[in-house]
Amino acid sequence: MMHLVLLAALAAYGVVAVPIQAEHDLGNIVFASVLFRHGDRAPTSSYPNDPYNDVAKYWPRGYGQLSEIGEEQHYRLGSYLRQRYSDLLPLTYNTNDTYIRSTDVDRTLVSARCNLEGLYPPTERTLSQPSIRFQAIPIHTETSSNDDLIVPFYNCAKYTTLSSYLKLTDEYQCVVNATAQVLEEVAEFAGTTTSSASGLHDVLFIEELYNLTLPDWVKPYYPQPLRNIELLEGFISAAGTTQLQRLSAGPVLKQMIENMQNKLNGTLSPDRKLYIYSAHDSNVVNLLQALKVFNGQLVPYASAVIIELREKLGSPYVTVSYKNSTETEPYLLQLPGCAHLCPLDRFVELTKEVVPDDEATECAEAVEEGETMDFQVPSAAILPEWEHCFNEPKILFGFKHHVISFKIPFFKLL
Questions:
Q1: Is 121 exposed, middle or buried (0-12, 13-18, 19+ CB in 10 A)?
Q2: Would you call the peptide bond into 152 cis, given omega within 30 degrees of 0 as the criterion?
Q3: Which pLDDT score, from 0 to 100, does residue 280 have?
Q4: Which pLDDT belongs to residue 403?
Q5: Which residues, at least 6 apart from 94, have a Cβ–Cβ distance to it below 8 Å?
Q6: What is the pTM of this model?
Q7: Which residues are CB-neighbours of 113 under 8 A, at least 6 positions away?
């Protein structure tokens, strides 16, 4: 039996989030980084007994492709960013103002394109062109095998090893055992395997979103417990420890921080004002977990994490906001250990444990036997039938939410 130590629950995933209001005096924005999830899409796959697996009929653009709804979502998000940064960005695109990076996936590339249509609407010059009525803006990308910024964990041996250790812990295996019967039943109904049954939540969610009648057999399993099974297996465990956060969200957070520091020091070249990262729900979760502000909920389409360098009374500050709907203003988040308006130096200090010095070097490092890591699970992600798998949580400092955190000694895999 592994030795467990309950750690102080620093509201890492339940920090107070408040809508940004005009009366908040947050200073002037001088630089911004925006990482968002792609918009509404078709399912990335189906299952053998799916009544809607006729791709041509139900998903004419193909599995995983952005939909017209997704296009509209990102156009609206881009329009919001245009409004938010109207004093920061000229109306006409210039490479010295904005840089856009996307994963090499159709839905993120198209989301970036639609977002830019809203961020940089046609000008008088483009409107005068009969054939081209948009601003042509480059979107940079790398294949997954070469992407060491947004999805660096794809080819990180240490990340793979750490993930394996995490899934061998007593707590994780306890949840696996607690959900085994559900996944077996779901797999039998769906005609698939138990290892892929949790992923059916995404398929069912999208079909329901498109007003397709779900089979009767799904009622005991959807949305719960499939939703939280997918959340734990596919998202929380992927960046549920400091080490995993460091190797997944660390590189992009490192670039965001370096850009802010260089902007402040006058050494950012080109001296841009906005960096955009078009990515996936997993990237949003990874970044929020690394910042200790994840709320334990699945990430809606076109959600965005907005990290801004601000100037107030001659001093540099950082704000972190989460816009999880195109219908509402973003929520201003507070990192544990800092105010909503966090001094830049303090922000750097609070995040240094999840920012790698050199990603390639760390990925090549072996995991030392006897090393420990902290596995943090937002309480919102734990279903009642799983509570026995974890130590009794404690709520400290009066925060509303909490995390369950414990030490896991590493051991060699056979």
A1: middle
A2: no
A3: 98
A4: 42
A5: none
A6: 0.90
A7: 139
Q: How far apart are CA 360 and CA 155, in angstroms?
A: 10
Question: Measuring CA to CA, which residue among 70, 148, 74 is closest to residue 112?
Answer: 74
Run of H or E residues at 343: strand 342-343
The b/e string for 334-367 (b: 16+ C-beta within 10 A; e otherwise) is: bbbebebbbebeebbebbeebbbeebeebbeeeb
**CA-to-CA distance for 207 and 112, rounded, in angstroms?**
24
Of 330, 336, 329, 346, give the one whose Cα is nearest residue 260: 346
pLDDT in tens, 22-76: 446 899 999 999 999 999 999 999 999 999 999 999 999 999 999 999 999 999 9
Please check whether residue 16 is in contact with residue 334, taking contact to mean a CB–CB distance below 8 angstroms.
yes
Which residues does the annotation mark as catalytic?
Answer: 38, 281
Q: Which one-letter DSSP state was computed for residue 35?
A: E
pLDDT one-digit tens code per residue, 350-374: 999 999 999 999 999 998 877 777 7
Which is it for the CA torsion 336, 281, 298, 227, positive or negative?
A: negative
Taking the CA atoms of residue 7, residue 13, residue 14 and residue 15 in that order, the dihedral angle to the nearest 10 degrees is 100
Q: Which 3 state secondary structure label does DSSP give 270?
A: coil
Per-residue pLDDT, 11? 34
Nearest to 152 by CA among 331, 283, 62, 24: 283
Neighbours of 390 (CB within 10 A): 19
DSSP 307-323: EEEEEETTEEEEEEEEE
Per the CB < 8 A criterion, the answer to whether 81 and 122 are in contact is: no
Say which residues have a Cβ less than 8 Å from residue 328's Cβ, sequence separation at least 6. Answer: 19
Contacts 24+ apart (CB under 8 A), 112-115: 112/74, 112/139, 112/276, 112/278, 113/139, 114/39, 114/66, 114/70, 114/71, 114/72, 114/74, 114/75, 114/78, 115/36, 115/74, 115/75, 115/77, 115/78, 115/81, 115/276, 115/278
Tokens of 148: 């060491």
Mean pLDDT of the 164-174 span: 87
